[in-house]
Design brief:
By secondary structure, the chain is an alpha/beta fold. Helices cover 41% and strands 17% of the residues. It has a 7-stranded parallel sheet, sandwiched between helices.
């Protein structure tokens, strides 16, 4: 059974990894998906990989003009949104004594400011009863050395979910955070094997997650299977933040 039959979904930052896997699964489950990415070449490749029922809109989720162009495209092509996965994000390592203003503004500008205005600008197109999913992280609930700015940005999303659940109560729009642990995606390319081994040792399951495992969790939150789930944080982390 197609769990997203005839639904319209928007997924930001979906040119690789978890968000791309989610876009592919949403299409397989019957949705039409709009995806974004900053680099046109990568966006074109993602659209080709998904293959059907997809529109790619080049843009940076931290730039309001790009968000306006995204939702204007959605309005022209489909006129509505049923599911939003605000996935675009980034992070850098820096201990407290080395954090720069530029680094702080860049991380919070995309992860927090970008997510807020992505959701805000989507709302006029949202069907009542829809689902908003924000891409969190176990870092929002745990302490990792030199990762404080990124962690704080993800903790802010958890707070947003609580507030927006009440703000959107009358429309029946559910708001949840999906918080992955260490996932085997292209972002890990170049990370020394020793560091990856250290990450894996922290995972009770004994292995990193796969993008497809995040996609199935996102599908749960997007579909009516999670109709009684809102204002929550779903950890998909192999148990790292749980034990």
């Amino acid at each position: 059974m197609a769990r997203l039959k005839d639904k319209v979904a928007v997924i930001t930052g979906a040119t690789s990894g978890m968000a791309l896997a989610t876009a592919r699964l949403f299409v397989e489950e019957g949705a039409y998906v709009f995806i974004t990415g900053r680099r046109q070449k990568n966006l074109d490749e993602a659209v080709k990989a998904i293959g059907r029922n997809v529109t790619g809109v080049q843009g940076d989720a931290s730039k309001l003009a790009d968000l306006d162009r995204l939702f204007e495209t959605v309005k022209k092509e489909k006129g509505r949104i049923d599911v939003l996965f605000a996935s675009a994000g980034m992070g850098d390592f820096a201990p407290i004594g080395e954090v720069t203003e530029e680094q702080f503004d860049k991380i919070f500008g995309l992860n927090v400011r970008g997510t807020l205005f992505t959701v805000q600008k989507a709302l006029p197109l949202f069907n009542d009863g829809g689902s908003i999913i924000m891409n969190g992280s176990i870092a929002g609930s745990m302490g990792f050395p030199a990762f404080g700015v990124y962690s704080a940005s993800k903790a802010a999303l958890r707070s947003f979910a609580r507030t927006w659940t009440l703000d959107l109560k009358s429309r029946g729009i559910r708001v949840n955070v999906l918080s992955p642990g260490t996932i085997d995606t292209p972002i890990l390319e170049g990370v020394p094997k020793e560091a990856l081994d250290d990450f894996v040792q922290l995972i009770p399951r004994g292995s990193m997650g796969r993008p497809e495992e995040i996609a199935t969790a996102a599908l749960f939150l997007a579909s009516s299977d999670s109709s009684f789930v809102t204002g929550s944080e779903l950890f998909v982390d192999g148990g790292v933040a749980q034990v």
